[in-house]
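Team,

Forwarding the record for the chain on the shared tracking sheet. I've put the sequence and predicted structure together so nobody has to dig through attachments.
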Amino acid sequence: MQFTEIISIAGYAIEAVGVLVILAGSAIASFGFLRTYRLAADGVAYTTFRRALGRSIILGLEFLIAGDIIRTVVVADTLENVAILGLIILMRTFLSVTLHLEIEGRWPWQPEKHESN
């Protein structure tokens, strides 16, 4: 087995981990929502569900980006493939940033708002 084949398999494996993270996070968030939606105050279960689901999607996207980078840079290092990788990373980064804004209510570079008692 050649080096490029091993790296290609590693890239696909990292992408598979990303998909599994999204699937597992979705299942865990859904289970938690179904378990608590009747007990929680109005909107709390839904907000918690959206945050957990969004966080699993963001984490999964990070793995997908890493897998794409590994496969493209090492295995298919043509200028066209690197340009396509750049577009994929831009789209996935845009999704990650907008999901973060939706979940946290702030941009990723803004400090966290601490509630005072």
